[in-house]
Structures are given as C-alpha cells and as structure tokens.
Specification:
Elements lengths: L2 H26 L8 H22 L5 H36 L5 H5 L1 H26 L4 E9 L8 E7 L10 H12 L5 E4 L9 H6 L14 E3 L3 H6 L1 H10 L3 E2 L3 E5 L3 E5 L5 H5 L6 H4 L9 E4 L7 H5 L4 E4 L10 H8 L5 E5 L2 E5 L17 E9 L3
Parallel strand pairs: 1-12, 2-3, 3-4, 4-5, 7-8, 8-9, 9-11
Antiparallel strand pairs: 2-12, 6-7, 10-11
Helix pairs in contact: 1-3, 2-3, 3-5
Amino acid sequence: MKLHQALVFFGIVFTIYGLINFYIFRRAVTVLPENYKNTFLFVFVFAVISYPAGRFLENYWVWYVSDFLVWIGAFWIATMVYAFLLLIVVDLFRLINHFLPFFPSVMNQNLEMTRKVAASLIFIIVLISVAGGFINTKLVAIKKYNITINKKAGSLKSLNIVMVSDLHLGTINGKMFAYKIVDKINKLHPDIVLFAGDIIDEDIKPVLRDNVGDALYELKAKYGIYGITGNHEYIGGVNDAVNYVTAHSIKMVRDSAMRIDDSFYLVGREDRDSRRFSDYKRKDLKTLLESVDKSLPIILMDHQPFRLEEAEQNGIDLQLSGHTHNGQIWPFNYLVDKIYELSWGYKIKGDTHYYVSCGVGGWGPPIRTGSRPEIINIKLIFNSE
C-alpha cells in the first residue's frame, strides 16, 4: 500500500475506532462510583490500544508480550462492537422517549437505578455474545456437496475436493489450530486440497516463531495441495508469505492455469488487491484461459467473490472463493450480503457452480456469531453424457 493511501486508510480507521471507544467510555463512566473511575480509565485505555500496539510490536519483537496484547485487543474489538450496538439501541429508545414518553414512571423517578440496571443488562449480553462467539470458533462444520459437471475428465469419474479459506495463520490461529484443521481435512480423504486465500494473517513473524506451517506437512491428497493469495498475504508481504507456504507443501497457483492428471484444470487468480498493495495488476480471466482446453472441467480459485458473471462468461465449471467471513460478527453478515452477490454458500449461474466459504479461521477477534467456521467437501461427478 502506498504511503499516502496507508495514511488516509489508517487515519480513517483509527478516527472511527477512537470515536466509538470514546462514546462507550462516556456512557459507561456515568454508572461507576467516583472512586472506581480512574481505575476504569486505565483498564479501558489499555484494552483500546492493545490490538494496534500488539500488531505494531509484532513487526519488531515477536514475543509473549505482543501475543498478550493482540489477544486482549482482539477480545476487546468484539466487546466494543456489541457494547456500541447495544448503547446505540438504548440511546435511540431514550431519544424516542424524550419526544414521545413511554418509559414507566418508575424509570424516570429513579434514573440512577435505571442506568445501573441497563448497564448490567448490556454487560451480561456482551459477555454472553463474546463468550458464545469464542466457543463457536471451535465448532468447525464440515459442509458436503455433490456437484455434477457435464464434461468428461479423462479417466476420472469423480473428484473429492476439500476446500478451505481464510485460515489466517498467526498469533490468534496458531499451531494447535493448524494441526486441528489439517486433521479434519485428512479425515475426509481428499483427492485434492484447495486453499482459497488468506492462508497467512498479516504478519508472518508469529508463524515463523512457532513453526505453525509444520502442520501443513501432514496434509495428504492424491493430486496435491494448492493455494492462491488473498488480500492478507499482500498486506503482510506477499513474497514472504508465498515462499513460506510453498516451502510447506502448498503449490501456489498465481495468475495461471494448471492441467492436472490430464483430466481437469485448476486456475488460480492473484488477489484483486494486488495492485493496491504491490502495484501488480492481475491478469483478466480471459487471458488466463487462452491456452486452456475448455472441453475439460475447469476449477477456478478467486479469493474475493466479486463479478461472479466473469466465471460464467468464460466457461468456468466451479469457482471457489472466501474472504467475506460472512461478516464474522453478527450483524455484519447483513452488510456483506449487500456488498456481494454471493456472500456465503452455494449458487449456480448458468452452467457455473460457485461456493463462497465463510472461512475456517478469522481476522481479529477469535469470535464468530454470524456463522460457524467451515471446511468444504465437494465431490465433483463428471458426466459426459
């Protein structure tokens, strides 16, 4: 990302982040006893700055201090989201009540008690949401689909695909997480394993320190393990990320098409943010397919599921994407649903099949309240009749 773009982007992000936290603090401090306010201020500021401070520290000193800050800050982000949303709801009711009074008289007669009850309810709802969302990240779902492709694939009658996206390997999703996912993949006995981008989180240093990639050596698939870049590979440094996963048994398909076992094609697109972060303009899909024999099945991996019609127009049989996380934290799933034609799940357009995964890992908070993490198992059945 160019310097001026980075300054504008992070300027906007930190301004919004700061204003939201200021709003939460101002509302929370009104219900605290006077002798607790200074302590609350210290704890609150520490929580607010933990995530950016931990991420910044990782660039220079990857140790347990940076890990601690990232974990504390990640949980705070989820806490902040739900506290902010609930406070907005409360203040909307207060605003309506100001013009059209409907609160019971007892609430108006004892405002201090009303505030404390409201604060307690908000605290309990936030705690349940964050704790439940954390538990949900451990409950990985296996989604199975049978898809028929009306083409002949050499001597193959079927192909057992396991696809995962958005592992975000790093401080939050570390070595134990990686081994857990690899074990689940292997139990599905895949013919081929496909990683649809964001294998590595923003900074590769925690991955290097903990040898997180060692788990990838355990993957087993007849036709191999393949991956593409996502936006996070570019955010953290695409060359280091690609070199690392390549050294750990993943063949990266970068703006190219591979003919596998003389039976089907695997096409991998470079992430669409490549130009923003590295000045590399990815090839258009038509160019990638110039030397492809379209009488054979074609599987496309494209991390960000924009412009789905391109795959349909260019004769792709199956497109696999990720990136959206289905919003990860409710209610952001409603927002991403407005941004993408397909923000999560399975869809058919013409003769092209699509699956957009909500991901098996996540960015930032280790919290999921919009969907369960998932591994996708697709059995392609080839039918030339």
